[in-house]
Amino acid sequence: MKKVSYLLIFIAMMLLLVACGDGEAANSDRDGPIEITYWYAWGDKIGENNENLVKQFNEMQDEIHVTAEFQGNYDELQSKTQAAFAAGNAPEVTQNEISSIETFAKSDMIQDLSKFVEEDAEEINMEDFNPGLMGNSYVDDKLYGLPYLRSTPIVYINKTMFEEKGIDPESIQTWEDFQLVAEKLTDDEHVGISMPVDIWFYEAFVAQAGGEMFDKNGKIAFNGESGVEALNFWKEMVIEGRMRVPGGEPQQAADMARQDFATGRAGMYFSSTADLTLMMQLAEENGYKLETIMFPENEKRSVPTGGANLVMTSGLDEKKQQAAWEFIKFMTAPEQTAYASSYTGYLPSRLSSVESDTMQELYEEKPQFKVAVDQLQYGNARPMIEGYPEVQKILIEEIQRLMLDTSLDAQDVLDQAAERSASLIK
């Protein structure tokens, strides 16, 4: 009987513990916030903007808590996200550099957002997103990302140097104008422009020459007539000493080109509109005035859009999905879009943001911010061919090879890049 009594007491205690545990779990589910992680790229003002917005989201409600984590540049972010997804510990929300959207979508690493938009049709107005930024958001007519921190390349100008040389920035409209101005800026101590070999810039010049990186069937076209023309234009400016193209790793080369411009060695500099607040700060620190202008045109005026979309990783449970969606909605809402644009220089991705008092006052006070918005009418989507992220690295290597050894032939270099890339295109 004692054994039976002890057994009954033991069972009763276990049932009580289970009940208490279930109650605590229920209370935890009910009272504690849903935890999600957000990965982002780039530091400086861009990183500060991400951290600031996440802090705002966490403080405005207590149902969802977001932990923001910096992951380096876009290439590093992409590699880390792929590795984390394979290991089963990917963040719930991350940035996808726009050319990698298709790769992630077709690998089932990111969630189709169409159903969330349909369910929230009254709350989120898709027509308010700038149509010029939506080209890299869809794969097979399904929505996989919303524009966030989007950009175009622009030309940064040392206006003080221009004034000293008697040059009007508005005189730069064509490739020929650009070349002539670079010649006027170049002397024993200065160079017309310093720029890294960046695939984004090459895409712009190929399009301006009337070409494309891939044809309508997804076949390589960057080694066609327009691609060669664009590369020969760069080569000629390097030979003439009007353009400096730092070598080394892409990030190192970009840092060196920025340093050339920041310290007044170069009169012009290609970079993203996302760098605007930083470049204005550097100009002030180094005692010169900064201006921005659109990319010059050749057969036409054209620039690729850039930056990232916010995406939700796939395989989340319903609660995590809803939490991730609420965060994505917040980050891409008009008010947050205006905040991010004014803080960094990135394009406001919502049409209503452009017309807001915040942005209109900014454009009035600092017209440098409006150049990229005006240029967006000439914007086009970046290639989203599967394998393109790897192809970009090959192209950069081959173009750098030509910039360092201008005795090479542009056609041969691009053909070599095409041959190396052929097996990567899907």
Automatic annotation (TrEMBL):
<dbReference type="InterPro" id="IPR050490">
    <property type="entry name" value="Bact_solute-bd_prot1"/>
</dbReference>
<protein>
    <submittedName>
        <fullName>Glycerol-3-phosphate ABC transporter substrate-binding protein</fullName>
    </submittedName>
</protein>
<comment type="similarity">
    <text>Belongs to the bacterial solute-binding protein 1 family.</text>
</comment>
<feature type="signal peptide">
    <location>
        <begin position="1"/>
        <end position="25"/>
    </location>
</feature>
<dbReference type="Pfam" id="PF13416">
    <property type="entry name" value="SBP_bac_8"/>
</dbReference>
<keyword id="KW-0813">Transport</keyword>
<keyword id="KW-0732">Signal</keyword>
<dbReference type="InterPro" id="IPR006059">
    <property type="entry name" value="SBP"/>
</dbReference>
